[in-house]
Design a protein that fits this description.
Shape: globular
GO molecular function, one term: ATP binding
Protein name: DNA repair protein RadA
Number of helices: 11
Keywords: ATP-binding, DNA damage, DNA repair, DNA-binding, Hydrolase, Metal-binding, Nucleotide-binding, Stress response, Zinc, Zinc-finger
Oligomer: single chain
Strand order of the largest sheet: 6-5-7-8-4-9-10-11-12
Strand content: 15-25%
CATH class of the largest domain: Alpha Beta
Mean pLDDT: 85
Low-confidence stretches: 38-49, 432-436
Family: Belongs to the RecA family. RadA subfamily.
Distance between the termini: 91 Å
Number of strands: 21
CATH architecture of the largest domain: 3-Layer(aba) Sandwich
Radius of gyration: 26 Å
Largest sheet: 9 strands, mixed
Function: Plays a role in repairing double-strand DNA breaks, probably involving stabilizing or processing branched DNA or blocked replication forks.
Number of domains: 3
CATH topology of the largest domain: Rossmann fold
């Protein structure tokens, strides 16, 4: 039977029976490309296909004497292990994406070298660089003596055959999955069919032999991992490596993790010897802050299970333009518009004739609603010209009615602030649930209370 060509979207993986200028699934233009029929895992002559025997079922509870899952393998990189949930799980598959030059290969060669130095078999396979290039990077990082197995190969069948020789590797790194190709798929490397087929073959090997597999993925302009979404569903953990060339730190953030908490982050600092761990990132983000400057508020946030303190800066300046400007870096612009509307409606803070600039210091991106109170405090402080108390932190969600709503893990936020020398915490009033609160916490019920406190601080400073 003749194979009928299919048309696949290179952005989302949607399949059509004819060419289309616009993908109906993701809305992308000119992303639908013709691909030949791909051979699946059961493709080939009928005589070579495995028989369709009935599968076995297993009880949910473990049987007596049954071997349990092997313990996690620590990579000797505390921040990397934190993101994974405590180390590498045998047979797990991790997909790491990030902008070009952000440091993905540097981080992975450091992790591979540390794990190999502990007596484990580790294989690093590069589809973009030659072996000599990988060795040069290792020499710059001082890792030339690590017993890491290197290879420059893109054929998946050859890679699986090499990894199957001898004992199964404890860790295998594929850099990157977009450069891999398999003989069972009749299309060019980098297409949706090739990425999906290559990932499926590598994941099958990892699950069968208990090898932890790390796949490096390219990203699109929007920061999303390139290729079909189905690859993200096939892997156990999806992590993104974030950072800015203007700052010297990098953040590894887990968006999906079947063996640990999601939204966990690991913080690294880029140095001349590679990426160094930052065990206390709050000190890094708060370093060099000017405590006497109006418009700066310290936000006590949570990233996964880790409390994190970061400074939110605001600048409110009069404008002569008909439409005031709103510029945001590191926060949701829609969230800023909502906070401005609430302050003007329910707190009497007039910001309609002012330009508003909001920045999260250090380049970190904050997404949780608990940053509303800190942003509002910074805005009111900048408008009134009164500096906030230097020993205070802020956290809380602001509703459209102006009420300040409770947030999760308040005790952990206050504990982290106290550890770093902050004695006051402006936060929502305690909810009905029992939660340990610090005597230094100051409960607020409405944004009008926040504006009144900041205005009262200014009047007291003027009287003195």
């Amino acid at each position: 039977m003749a194979k009928h060509p299919t048309f696949t979207c290179q952005s989302c993986g949607a399949v059509y029976n004819r060419w289309r200028g616009k993908c109906e699934a993701c809305g992308g233009w000119n992303t639908v490309v013709e691909e030949s029929g791909a051979a699946g895992p059961l493709a080939g002559p009928a005589a070579t296909r495995p028989s369709r025997a009935k599968g076995r079922v297993f009880p949910l509870q473990a049987l007596t004497g049954e071997s349990r899952e092997p313990p996690r393998t620590l990579t000797r990189n505390g921040e990397f292990d934190r993101v994974l949930g405590g180390g590498l799980v045998p047979g797990s598959v991790i997909l790491i994406g990030g902008d070009p030059g952000i440091g993905k290969s540097t981080l992975l060669i450091q992790v591979a070298a540390a794990l190999a130095s502990g007596g484990n078999r580790v294989t690093y396979i590069s589809g973009e660089e030659a072996v000599a290039q990988v060795r040069m990077r290792a020499e710059r990082l001082g890792l030339a003596g690590a017993p890491v197995e290197l290879a420059a190969e893109t054929n998946v069948e050859d890679i699986v055959a090499t990894l199957s020789q001898g004992p199964a590797p404890r860790l295998a790194v594929i850099d990157s999955i977009q450069t891999m190709w398999t003989e069972t798929v009749e299309s060019a490397p980098g297409t949706v069919s090739q990425v999906r087929g290559s990932a499926q073959a590598l994941i099958r090997f990892a699950k069968t032999h208990g090898t932890a597999l790390i796949l490096v993925g390219h990203v699109t302009k929007d920061g999303q991992i390139a290729g079909p979404r189905v690859v993200e569903h096939m892997v156990d953990c999806v992590a993104s490596f974030e950072g800015d060339s203007a700052h010297h730190f990098r953040i590894l953030r887990a968006a999906k993790n079947r063996f640990g908490p999601t939204d966990e982050i690991g913080v690294f600092e880029m140095t001349d010897r590679g990426l160094a761990e930052v065990p206390n990132p709050s000190e890094l983000f708060l370093a060099g802050r000017d405590m006497a400057t109006p418009g700066a508020a310290v936000f006590a946030g949570m990233e996964g299970t880790r409390p994190l303190l970061v400074e939110i800066q605001a600048l409110v300046a009069p404008t002569s333009l008909g439409t005031p400007r709103r510029a945001v870096v590191g926060w949701d612009p829609a969230r800023l518009s909502m906070v401005l509307a609430v302050l003007e409606t329910h707190a009497g803070v007039r910001l309609g004739g002012h330009d508003v600039y909001l920045n999260v210091a250090g380049g970190l991106r904050v997404s949780e609603p608990a940053a509303d109170l800190a942003a509002a405090a910074a805005l009111v402080s900048s408008l009134t010209g009164s500096a906030l108390p230097p020993e205070s932190v802020f956290f809380g969600e602001i509703g459209l009615s102006g009420s300040i709503r409770p947030v999760t893990q308040s005790s952990a936020r206050i504990k982290e602030a106290t550890k770093l020398g902050f004695s006051k915490a402006f936060c929502p009033n305690p909810s009905g649930e029992r939660e340990e609160r610090s005597p230094a916490s100051i409960g607020l019920a409405h944004v009008a209370d926040l504006a009144a406190r900041i205005a009262g601080t200014r009047r007291r400073a003027a009287a003195e």
